[in-house]
Amino acid sequence: MSEVNEETVEPGRARRLWHLLEPLHSVLYFAPEVFEEAAGLGYDTRERWLSYFPLRSAPLGPVADGVVASAFYSFSPVMVVTCMAGAWETASPEEVLAARLRGVDRAYRALFGDRVNSSELAEAAALTRRAAEAADPAGRPLAAANAALAWPEQPHLQLWQAATILREHRGDGHLAALLLAGLDPVEALVSFAATGAASERRFESRGWTADEWAAARARLADRGLVDERDGTATQAGRELRRRVEQDTDRLALGPWQTLGKDAADRLSDLLGDYWVAVIGSGLLPSETTLGMGKV
Question: Which terminus of the chain has a lower count of CB atoms within 10 Å, N or C?
Answer without folding.
Answer: N
